[in-house]
Amino acid sequence: MRTSKGEMKGSLKKGAWSLEEDRKLINYISRYGIWNWSHMPKYAGLLRSGKSCRLRWVNYLKPDLKKGCFTEEEERSILHFHSILGNRWSAIARKLPGRSDNEIKNYWHTTLKKSVENKPVIKVSKKKNTNMSPCSESQNVYKKEDINHANDMTDFILYEDDNSIFNLSPPLQGHQAEFTDDIGSPGTVEDLQCFWRELYPLEDLEFNNINQELFLDNIFQEYSYDDTSISSCSF
DNA sequence: AATACGATCAACCGCAATGCT
DNA sequence: GAGCATTGCGGTTGATCGTAT
After folding, report:
1. Nucleotide nearest to A3 (CA to C1')
2. What is the pLDDT of residues A1-28, one digit of tens each?
3. Three-class HEC string of A98-144
4. What's the domain range around A109?
5. What percent of chain A has pLDDT over 90?
């Protein structure tokens, strides 16, 4: 069955994305790029709508997304552009590289709107420890400087071409191309690094203008590793 | 300790715009 | 130009958290 917009309905999963689903989507896009959101989920082994996949990628998984608190400068930019553009969140997001429209929209409704209405806002971090983006130092967040040999993680890089399609460069070959979805959930940083290493072997990399540090931070912050995981990490 | 409440944010929904045949 | 598929956008919802009582 299809909706009026052509997307499959029924038997599609909804709600929060699991780590495994994230991995499948990242894995697929890394290998094949974004060619058709509607058909991609089937080939990626995901029981999600194309819309859901796109949203997840755009708002959460894209490697150049910035995570963490908005800076004062970003706040000023949002206020400024909102005064000009109104609720055109995607237009505002384009003015703030690394921020998604959804993130800006949420930040506006939860924080800035109140300040505009002259209600002083006391920022208290109440982040969740799984899917939430890290905000304060109280969060269980580990930056790359916390981890030995973290520079190795800059081995992993995606690039965006003129059509906004993310590709891996160069294409995976041999055992890399055989990399499949049936990989267990990464319990530690080490496990996750193995996952990424299989996708992006050092010798095959080409670097470009994607902010590698942001991508690196995203990988660690995404999964909010606990102390045990970090201390056991040795790459 | 238990419960209620408010804040936050990921994800969904409906619709409009755009592209393709 | 019509009809359908796909993409993108903005509003809204619901789950989950921390805090207050």
Report:
1. C5
2. 444 333 444 578 888 999 999 999 999 9
3. CCCHHHHHHHHHHHHHHHHCCCCCCCCCCCCCCCCCCCCCCCCCCCH
4. 72-116
5. 29
| A95 Cβ contacts chain C strand, under 7 Å | no
Residue A99 lies in a domain: yes
Q: Is the CB of A52 under 7 A from strand B?
A: yes
How much is the pLDDT for A176? 36
Single pTM value for the model: 0.61
Distance, Å, A97 CA → B20 C1': 31
Query: Is residue A41 domain-shared with residue A85, that is, in the same domain?
Result: no
A15 sits within 7 Å of strand C by its CB: yes
How many domains, in total, are found in chain A? 3
- Whether any strand B atom is under 7 angstroms from the Cβ of A224: the reply reads no
Query: Which bases in strand B are touched by protein, i.e. have an atom under 7 Å from a CB?
Result: 6-16
Rounded Cα–Cα distance for residues A177 and A81 (Å): 44
Query: Please, how many CA atoms are within 13 Å of residue A173, restricted to the half-sphere of its CB?
Result: 5
pLDDT, tens only, A91-111:
999 999 889 999 999 999 888
**In angstroms, how far is C7 C1' from A17 CA?**
21
In tens, the pLDDT along A163-182 reads 333 333 333 333 333 333 33
Cβ-proximal residues to A122 (8 Å cutoff; 6+ apart), any chain: none
- Best-predicted range by mean pLDDT among A95-99, A123-127, A156-160, A186-190? A95-99
Q: Are residues A106 and A39 in the same domain?
A: no
DSSP state, residue A145: G
A8 bridge partner residues: A2
